[in-house]
Specification:
The protein has about 220 residues and is of the alpha/beta class. It is elongated, with a radius of gyration of 21 Å. It is built from nine helices and 13 strands. The protein has helices at about 15-25, 35-40, 55-60, 80-90, 105-110, 120-135, 165, 170, 210-224, and strands at about 5-10, 30-35, 50, 70-75, 95-100, 115-120, 140-145, 150-155, 160-165, 175-180, 185-190, 195, 200-205. It is about 40% helix and about 30% strand. Strand 5 (about 95-100), helix 5 (about 105-110) and strand 6 form a beta-alpha-beta unit. It folds into two domains: about 5-120, NAD(P)-binding Rossmann-like Domain (Rossmann fold); about 135-220, Alpha-Beta Plaits (2-Layer Sandwich), CATH 3.30.70.1450. The strands form three sheets. A six-stranded parallel β-sheet has the order 3-2-1-4-5-6, with helices on both faces.
C-alpha cells in the first residue's frame, strides 16, 4: 500500500516539527514555504520541498496538490494567507484539510470555510500544561470532545501491585483503562487480571467529570 502523502504549508516551528514527525512515522511529506532559506534547511529531511506562495492557485495545481491525502496549513503569522491557502486546498480537491489557528476568530473563519480540523497549538498546550501542573502524575491530556477526555497518568504507589479488577475504576470512578505502558511493554485493552505497578503509565478514557474525579482522588490518596 502506498504511504499517505501530506503537504505542509508553512515551515515555521509548528509546521516543521509536524512535517518531521510525519516523516519519522513513515509518510511522504511535501513542505511548502515562501522563505527560501527555510525550505533549503528542510530539504534534506522531507520527501520534497518547494519555495512557493501557497495562495498561487496555478503553483498548487502544478505541484499536484489535489493528489495529496492531507493538506496542512501551518501558517501562523498571516491570517489572510492562511485562509486563502485553506480555501484553495478545499477548492482543488484535497481529501482532508487541516489548519492551524492563532485566535478563536481565525479558527471560526476556518471552520466556516469547511476545514476538516482546526488546531489551536498554543491554546491546547496551555490546557495540557495547566492540567499537568495541578495533577503531577498526569502525563498527557487529550480532549476527544467537549464531554470526553483521554489521559495518560502515572500509576501511583497507592495502586501498586493491584489488578484492574481490584481497582475497579469503571464502577468507582466511571472511567475505563484502555491501555497500560509497563516496563515489559504496552498492553492494549488490558484484562481485569492485569496488574499495575508504580511508575507504569495507564491510558484512561471517560467523561470530563469522571476523569477529573479520578485524577483528584488518585492524587489525594498519593498525598496521604
Amino acid at each position: 500500500m502506498k504511504p499517505k502523502q501530506f503537504a505542509v504549508i508553512g515551515l515555521g516551528r509548528f509546521g516543521s516539527s509536524l512535517a518531521l514527525e510525519l516523516m519519522e512515522l513513515g509518510y511522504e511529506v511535501l513542505g511548502i514555504d515562501r522563505n527560501e532559506e527555510v525550505v533549503e534547511d528542510m530539504s534534506e529531511y522531507l520527501t520534497h520541498t518547494v519555495v512557493a506562495d501557497a495562495t498561487d492557485e496555478e503553483m498548487l495545481k502544478s505541484l499536484g496538490i489535489r493528489n495529496f491525502d492531507c493538506g496542512i496549513v501551518a501558517i501562523g503569522d498571516d491570517i489572510q494567507m492562511s485562509i486563502l491557502s485553506a480555501i484553495l486546498l478545499k477548492e482543488l480537491g484535497v481529501s482532508t484539510v487541516v489548519a492551524k489557528a492563532i485566535s478563536v476568530l481565525h479558527g471560526r473563519a476556518l471552520q466556516k470555510l469547511g476545514v476538516d480540523r482546526v488546531i489551536f497549538p498554543e491554546r491546547d498546550m496551555g490546557i495540557r500544561v495547566a492540567h499537568q501542573l495541578v495533577t503531577p502524575n498526569l502525563l498527557d491530556y487529550i480532549e476527544l470532545s467537549k464531554d470526553y477526555l483521554i489521559v495518560e497518568m502515572t500509576v501511583t504507589d497507592c495502586m501498586d501491585g493491584k489488578t484492574l479488577s481490584e481497582l475497579n475504576t469503571r464502577v468507582r470512578y466511571g472511567v475505563t483503562v484502555v491501555a497500560l505502558n509497563k516496563r515489559s511493554g504496552i498492553i492494549v485493552a488490558p484484562t481485569a487480571m492485569d496488574v499495575v505497578n508504580a511508575g507504569d503509565v495507564m491510558v484512561v478514557i471517560g467523561s470530563n467529570d469522571n476523569v477529573e474525579r479520578f485524577e483528584t482522588e488518585v492524587v489525594n490518596l498519593q498525598q496521604k
